[in-house]
Design brief:
By secondary structure, the chain is of the alpha/beta class. It is built from 11 helices and 12 strands. Helix 1 (about 10-30) packs antiparallel against helix 8, helix 5 packs parallel to helix 6 (about 145-155) and helix 8 packs across helix 11. The relative contact order is 0.17. The mean pLDDT is about 95. The chain binds pyridoxal-5'-phosphate.
Amino acid sequence: MIMQFRDLQKQYQILQTQIDAAIQTVCRTGNFISGEEVSSLERQLSEYVGVKHCITCGNGTDALTLVLKAWGIGAGDGVFVPDFTFFASGEVVSAEGAIPLFVDVSMDTYNLDPDQLEIAIQQVKEEGTCVPKAVICVDLFGLPADYLRIEEICKRYGLLLLEDGAQGFGGKIGARRACSFGDAATTSFFPAKPLGCYGDGGAVFTNDDETAALIRSYAVHGKGQMKYDNIRIGCNSRLDTMQAAILQVKLEAFQKYELEQVNHAAQCYNELFSEVNLKRPTIPEGFYSSWAQYTIQLDQGRDAVIAALREKKIPSMVYYPKPMHRQKAFDGTISAQADCPAAEYLCGHVLSLPLHPYLEEKEQKEVALALVEAIDFVKAK
Ligand SMILES: *Cc1c(COP(=O)(O)O)cnc(C)c1O
């Protein structure tokens, strides 16, 4: 058996009976769009997260877009986004005609740095380049961002806060779950995310009735009282009934044991690496991660380490190789002018290792052994 970076086949083997039954039920009833499973999943998700409304949609990128549309964010507006994240977090801002303003992250948590956010807000206000409207804050690699401080900063400056919880579902700060922070939150059910389906899927969470109603409209062609009464330009973004049925089975496993198991596996890596010359992930006191990734930092020789792991058939990934403000898509825009040394450093030094709830201790020991050898080899050179 070749080690998987994230083993979805093993998960299917364990849940197969229930998943197959769920799929067959949808086939028999024939409600492939907006079936009963969609509304019951929305109820389960909102209860789990602890938020009044959950609106499922086509994917995590659409979820972000729907929130920006509901908030009326567009031309001339500025939205602060961490410089170290998946492209979609900033892409959606530009797609709505607004300007993503990239802010540096913490070297320890990889998440948006509240001090840098405040500096960036003051700078935009002084320079008047755009009207700052919102912050999109990412729960990178499963760890909730520092919402206690970021919520306070957003209130003080009158900015809306959107939690991009695509990687964060299941995380916590104290008793508060990820996807419950800010004015609205989103997640993704892309297969490799902490809670994944068997295709594309996403959801928006909010306590605000008006935002929820607007999102339900935007997601179905700007519908009014009914589907053929169209009162605004929207889009088509829905979660398939089949995906909702699969997610119901997976959510149960996620709550019952997967989240615990992946935390156990992360803890096991922490112990295996305690004496190794690498920087382990930092989880601040009171925070709980859903471990979308286990991401270490190597001070030198990352490429050689990746090659040495590959030699032993151990997969590893670089999330992310390029800071947002250096992406070609932003060339020549204000967004490209960000100054983010921490994000730059991380892009050159991070490495994500295989991690999922079904990873075995013996596999983790293999990873650790190969990693130690590779690091020693790089140092000796
Ligand atoms: C995956 C991801 C998205 C986009 O989700 P999709 O379902 O792939 O559209 C957005 N933001 C972050 C941080 C992500 O990791």
